[in-house]
Each structure stands twice: as structure tokens, then as C-alpha cells.
Specification:
Distance between the termini: 20 Å
CATH topology of the largest domain: Rossmann fold
Pfam families: DUF463 (PF04317)
CATH superfamily of the largest domain: P-loop containing nucleotide triphosphate hydrolases
CATH architecture of the largest domain: 3-Layer(aba) Sandwich
Strand order of the largest sheet: 2-3-4-1-5-6-7
Largest sheet: 7 strands, mixed
Strand content: 15-25%
Order of helices and strands: HEHHEHEHEHHHHHEHHHEHHEEEEHH
CATH class of the largest domain: Alpha Beta
Radius of gyration: 23 Å
Number of strands: 10
InterPro entries: YcjX-like
Number of domains: 2
Helix content: 25-40%
Protein name: YcjX family protein
């Protein structure tokens, strides 16, 4: 939607539009969330907590061509077929910005419903990789600051030794040459991939992990360098490329996509981080705090100048994969997420944005079960594993007090002291939905009510 469309909407001369941004870090479930949300808004039998669906206000829903002709369309049909077809499987994750428009035909309810008449409301869903959003922190750092922070943060992460060996081979007096730059960038990118696989969240620059059409470009061919190399030709060129990355890659993304979002979902794989250990939990907490500064209206600096008076009105923080836990543990998962995001969430609340935290499963893959272990009955879940086997699973008990996890994470503990939290990789279950029902979920209707319920 361009400036002209924004103006028309502001004057009340076009149908209202809600722009919903969906992001999160790798494996948080962005693609599944969008696919299931759209499917459940089109077939609303499972959306009881969405009031406009429950009271019949939404008369129909259909997909339309997206308004931005230069942005790829979110491949809803292919993703839905992957999740609900005869051989259900997980679709590919988000690798670039994409968009989808779902139009809702709504008959307002209440005292003045007859005066308003039928209304069409467009929901524009914008999907973008959370890895790109991590680059926000780069905008207010220069190359020296970013390098120092990154080299310090690398300690203890996989792939660090290989990168340090590559640095040790650098001659500070040598002239700049492209093969050396490419080799350093490749080793550093390999470290980022290994760190992400090990459960670390804060891996910048984000485009190194998802380069798209920019793979191999000079703007993506740099790496952090120690201060001892600050007088070298290599350092000067990497500093120039770092600045180019910020101005030509990061800033246009925020200007063209992020600045026009009304409502935002931030998906977080809290269970995955807990399984990886205290360092992954603390790294996720720091990364999410950095990311969420982007949603603070009135924030000083380049972002507020870019956004102007535009504000994100509502932000949902959602801990995904709640179906991996029995429902009795869902409140504890929500409490852990709330505690992890406390500082950033308080900032958003203080600035006027409404926020909510909840545990969800956009696609439910399990049923609840009980496992007998000795003299104890353990609340478990049962589902189909990726290899086709059926399994009942108890991941361990999440603590009632989030500080039991967050305190050792902040203190730098390498392992959990008294507990081990397991995870399973469940496959999508075969669908047996009734006519008019979307895919099974946990609290997706509550999420939709918070995000768009007031507008429909």
C-alpha cells in the first residue's frame, strides 16, 4: 500500500486496513503461525475466543492480491497443503519478506450496527525474518563498537576457535585483497550458523544467515576485527562495508516494511532455548530486548525519525510450541516468557502500546496423556515423531518461579543445576477437521482477538 492509499484511508475514502507484522527468531514458527491464522480466519469453527467469529460478525473471508506489487506473496496454499495434506510435514521457514492480504466481510454488532452496514476490512500480513530485525542494534553502533561486542560475545560459542585462527593469520601491514576478506567472512558466517544451531539467538549481521539475492556482495563480505588491526587496510575496508550494510540494507528494510506496521506478533521458541541451556536463555533474553526497542514509539535516534508519528498499537509476545507441554504447564511457560521480556515489555507499555504475553501452538500436533513413572503420574503429551513413531513425552517440570531459570542464565551458568528440560520434534498430525473448522491450535483465537478483535 503506497502513500496515496494511506491518505485515502486516512480520509475515510477506502476500506480500512490492518497491517500485521509477524516475526521471531529461527524455528519460532512464523510460517506455521501465518498459515494457520489465515486458515482459521477463513474457516472459523475453532475461533471461539475471537468475538467477531463467535457472534457471527464475520460473514466471509477471502484472499485478494496483495497491495505491494514488488513484495513476494506469502505462499499460503503451498504451506497449507504441507501442513494438512495426505503426507503432512513442516513447510520451509521464512527466508525473505513476503505478504498476504486477507479480506473480511464484517457486519458490526451492537446498538448502532444497523447504521454502519456491512464493512470490508483488509488484513495485510507481513512476514519477515527475525534475523533481519536483529540488525536494529547495528544502526546505533560503529564498526569498532560492534566488533568489540561481537568478539567478546563469541567466547564459548561454537566456531570461535576457527575464526580466531583465521584472524591470527592476518598481516596488519598487508594491502587489502578480496580473497582474504571473503575467507574471513566465510569463517565468521560459519560461526554464526553453528551458534544458531546451538541455540544462540543474537547472531549479527542477520543477513549473513539469510542473504537471499545479496549472497557474495561486498555489503555482506566483512567480519568483526580486533582493535589491534584498526590501522590496517583490511580494517578500513571492513569499516566502510559495515557502514554500507547499515545504510543500504538495514535502513531500507525498516523504511519500506517495518515503518507501516500497526500490530505486531513476536514469536519466541522459549522451550528450545531452555533445552539448549542457561547461555541460550540469556542470549535470547538479550536479543529480544534489543529487537523490541524497535517497537518503542518516541524512541530517540534514527528510528523515530524514520517512523515519524507512526506507532505499533499492539504487540503480542507468543511462546510457541505450547502443544509440547501438557496444559497444566502452560501458565508457567507464559510466566517465563513474561519475565524474559520484562524490561522491553515495560518500555512498550510505558510508551502507550498495548502488550500481551501468552503461550500458543498455531498448529496443535499432540494430544494430552499421562505417563506413570514409579508411583507418580506425570502430565504428558502424545504425538507422531518425525520418523513416524508414536510417542508419549514428558519434558520435565518447568519451575513455578521464572527466576529459577533466569538467575543462573544471567550469572553465566553453563548447565542447569537441578533439572534437564527435554524437547521432541513432533510432525504435523493427520487432519480430521469437520467442515468449517480450520487446523487445530492452542490459543490462536485468543491471539487473534488481542491483535485484531478491536478493529473487526
Amino acid at each position: 500500500m503506497g502513500i496515496g492509499s494511506d491518505l485515502m484511508q486516512g480520509l475515510g475514502l477506502s476500506d480500512p486496513v490492518i497491517r500485521l507484522g509477524v516475526t521471531g527468531l529461527s524455528r519460532a514458527g512464523k510460517t506455521v503461525f501465518i498459515t494457520s491464522l489465515v486458515a482459521n480466519l477463513m474457516d472459523r469453527g475453532r475461533m471461539h475466543a475471537l468475538r467477531a467469529a463467535a457472534d457471527g460478525s464475520i460473514k466471509s473471508a477471502w484472499l485478494q492480491p496483495q497491495p505491494d506489487d514488488t513484495v513476494p506473496r506469502f505462499d499460503y496454499e503451498r504451506h497449507l497443503a504441507a501442513l494438512t495434506g495426505p503426507d503432512p510435514h513442516w513447510p520451509e521457514g521464512t527466508r525473505h519478506v513476503s505478504q498476504l492480504r486477507l479480506s473480511l466481510r464484517v457486519q458490526p454488532q451492537g446498538l448502532f450496527a444497523g447504521l454502519k452496514g456491512m464493512q470490508t476490512i483488509h488484513l495485510d500480513i507481513v512476514d519477515y525474518p527475525g534475523e533481519w530485525l536483529l540488525d536494529l542494534r547495528l544502526m546505533e553502533r560503529d564498526f569498532a563498537e560492534w566488533s568489540a561486542e561481537t568478539l567478546d560475545r563469541m567466547q564459548g560459542r561454537p566456531g570461535t576457535e576457527a575464526y580466531e585462527a583465521a584472524l591470527a593469520a592476518i598481516d596488519p601491514e598487508a594491502r587489502f585483497d578480496e580473497p582474504t576478506a571473503q575467507r574471513l567472512a566465510e569463517v565468521y558466517t560459519a560461526h554464526l550458523r553453528e551458534a544458531r544451531e546451538a541455540g544462540f539467538s543474537d547472531c549479527t549481521p542477520g543477513r549473513f544467515l539469510l542473504p537471499g539475492e545479496m549472497a557474495g556482495s561486498p555489503a555482506l563480505t566483512f567480519a568483526p576485527l580486533p582493535a589491534i588491526l584498526s590501522g590496517s587496510p583490511l580494517y578500513r575496508e571492513f569499516r566502510r562495508r559495515f557502514d554500507a550494510y547499515k545504510s543500504r540494507v538495514v535502513k531500507p528494510f525498516f523504511r519500506d516494511h517495518f515503518a507501516r506496521i500497526d500490530r505486531q506478533v513476536v514469536l519466541v521458541d522459549v522451550l528450545g532455548a531452555i533445552h539448549q541451556g542457561p547461555q541460550a536463555v540469556e542470549d535470547m533474553r538479550r536479543a529480544m530486548a534489543d529487537i523490541l526497542t524497535a517497537f518503542r514509539p518516541g524512541r530517540a535516534g534514527w528510528l523515530s525519525q524514520l517512523l515519524g508519528t507512526r506507532r505499533v498499537e499492539r504487540i503480542l509476545f507468543a511462546a510457541t510450541k505450547a502443544d509440547h507441554l501438557n496444559h497444566v504447564q502452560h501458565p508457567r511457560l507464559t510466566n517465563i516468557l513474561t519475565a524474559m521480556l520484562r524490561e522491553a515489555r515495560d518500555r512498550a507499555d510505558f510508551s502507550g502500546a498495548r502488550t500481551e504475553a501468552m503461550s500458543i501452538a498455531a498448529l496443535r500436533t499432540t494430544t494430552e496423556d499421562v505417563i506413570r513413572q514409579g508411583d507418580e503420574d506425570l502430565p504428558a503429551v502424545r504425538g507422531t515423531l518425525m520418523d513416524g513413531r508414536q510417542a508419549a513425552f514428558y519434558p520435565g517440570e518447568l519451575p513455578a518461579d521464572p527466576a529459577v531459570l533466569l538467575h543462573p542464565a544471567r550469572e553465566g551458568a553453563e548447565h542447569w543445576l537441578d533439572a534437564d528440560y527435554a524437547i521432541m520434534n513432533f510432525a504435523p498430525a493427520a487432519q480430521t477437521a469437520r467442515q468449517g473448522d480450520g487446523p487445530p491450535h492452542i490459543r490462536l483465537d485468543r491471539a487473534a482477538e488481542f491483535l485484531i478483535g478491536d478493529r473487526i
